[in-house]
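Table S5 (text form). Sequence records supplied for joint modeling of the two-component complex.
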Amino acid sequence: MKALMSRLAGLVMIFMFFAGSGVGAQERPERFQRREAPVAIPVTVFHSTQGANLPTAETLSKGELLFEISHRFLPAVADGADALWGFDGPVYNRFGLAYAVSSRMMVGVQRTNLHDNLELNAKARLWETRSEAALVMIGAMGGIAWNTAAPTGAGADDGEGQSYGQLMLNVLVGERLALGVVPTVMHNPVIVDATSENTFVLGGHAQLYLSQHASLLAEWIKSPGRAGLEHNSGTFGIELETGGHFFKVILTNQARMNPTQFLGGTPFEFKSDEWRVGFNVTRVIAF
Amino acid sequence: MRLTTKVGTIVKLHSVMHPAAGGVLVTLALLTAVGPASAQQEYRVDLTAERSVTFTSSASIEEFEGVTDRIDGMVRLDTSALNAESGGDGTEFFFEVDLTSLDTGIGLRNRHMRDNYLEVKEHPFAAFGGRVARAAPLSDGAYRITVQGVFGVHGVEQDRAMTCDLSPVGAGYRVQCTFSVLLSDHDIEIPSVMFLKLNNEVQLNLDFRVIPVEREQ
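The corresponding structure-token record, covering 504 residues in total, follows.
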């Protein structure tokens, strides 16, 4: 009996110790019932609002501004030391601004020095879902562009206007691999043609997130071949991100920068002799 | 015998156990664990009033804040109302903050905070639980209370003491607390890549109201 009571007292002490420990920081005491449901973690597939060229379904938060400066160097890396492995230039550049009118809707303007292409666009994040298998996000984007310094061509008298509409279908497989498919319908892909046409372009891209700050990216855009723009566009590179910045360094056979330009194809074949260096820098600014 | 638990709850037991007193001891011990049955007042966070939890990081390049209103919690006093006698083993408090809701003003930075540093998927809440050590009266019915307990964030817990000022508002109190947290104490990686620098010491400011809970008869 004595031994039994001694054991019982010991058990009580152990019980009380752990009962007290139950008040610990990550364990709620019994008398506390949280009255608000936990905030759901937002779905994120691609971290950035754009890949090397193709857009993602991701949008900014309401009221945020995105500033972009991007370059594509025209000399090929294969030109060697004489062209400083492509960095001598000249370059095509692009400046862009986008503003989030809501957490699902962005409007933007971007201009590139190739043909002085000026584009106004809008993008919407339409739907996203989270399941155990994957995260899915779907968006849509459209834009209109003018080429105020279009080359004089074969009697182009239909104006220099272009437009496009596209869907962004994004999936995160596992924790690190983001995949995107971007079907696009574009109007007037070749501004020097006397007539305008509609064309269908299919793009795909992937991004492998290696760490908190670094990822590898690849992109392929299949465009109908046409004179002067015979080839599909391929791009691969790395992305560094931190606190609202994205910095991409790429190799590509596509030097044209605005959507109505790179969606139309490229004159360069996707082989190492034709790879060009490019970079994109974006910065999110909140007021 | 004094048995101090992880959160500072102190339980008194007889230092010498007599076999004949075993049954009495069990009863006493259980009663002590439950605490006094009278003269208690419990307060809970007023979810209808303005609440804010703000952390401020002073970095070498930029200073930024993270803000959320998703704090909930309770305080149980060992007195029928907050007074200079409040505090001790019969008290208890627990507060937690939903870290997923933190807003730093930039969506991408929010995601970095959530995914990379706080890792909210595994550790969704920061919490502080323990007991009220003492309550010192200030002017106009206000009190400065000292609480002791365990503060946990990112799955790492630390013993902490904190001082909060309570000023009367209606039947309850406005609670304002300020304290600092070392990210390294909680195994939170300090971002130091490229454009973002974060100080290891983060300032936390809590501002919310508590209202009394009607006691069951």
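Note: The first helix of chain A runs from residue 2 to 21.
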